[in-house]
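Mods, move this if it's the wrong board.
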Amino acid sequence: MAAPLQYGDPPRLGGFAVQARLSTVPAGLVYLGQGPDGRAVSIALLTRGAALDPSARERFVTAIRSSSGVRGWMARARGRTTTLEGPPVVAAELGDAPWVAVPYTPGRPGAERFLEPVMVGGTLIGEAHGPDFVPYWLADRAPALPAPPRPRPPLTETRTRVLVAGAVLALLVLLGAVIALLLFGGEDDSAPMPRPMPPTQYVPSPPPVPASPEPQEPQPSPSPGETGRSTPGQPPGEDTDEGNPI
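Not the wrong board. Structure tokens:
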């Protein structure tokens, strides 16, 4: 009877969507899945402990490979000849977390038949006798999930692309330098050279002349008893006729 999925169950196995649990056995779990075309499948998956045991994993893988009817060593160990008969294998994964999918038919055996050879009881040769064999991983009931896909490696450029990118970068830098030289270097060449300033000449200026004349000393006026007319501006007693003989 189908049961809901539990925490830890894989949502997908390969190209099949896991929908429910069909059964649980000590060696693994059986799921109900749906393929991309809508077909229902039965998927058998080992437990995590059984997948980590190389012998148990090898027995599971051998059962998947012998599903075509080849006689297996498990049949000889039990003293009878048996073959794994049932629906054909639709898909299988034989890696570290192997699983197998077969068509699902309600009420008929499905993929759980591949989990039966994983558990070993008694001895491997002859009839079963003595104490039973219990694997150490029997208590581990977690499903063995496939490893997550590896992250995509970082993108790397080829040598040709690196050289082309370097050449383009160098060309852009050179073009920028030329544009800067034309913008800033052309202005300095076209601007006229500044003329030197003429030397400063210091010429002494004459002293200032007063606007009003200086006052002169008063002249004595002639007395009335003096004879003769004197020349204005000539002091009395001086003879004006220099050329007359005495």
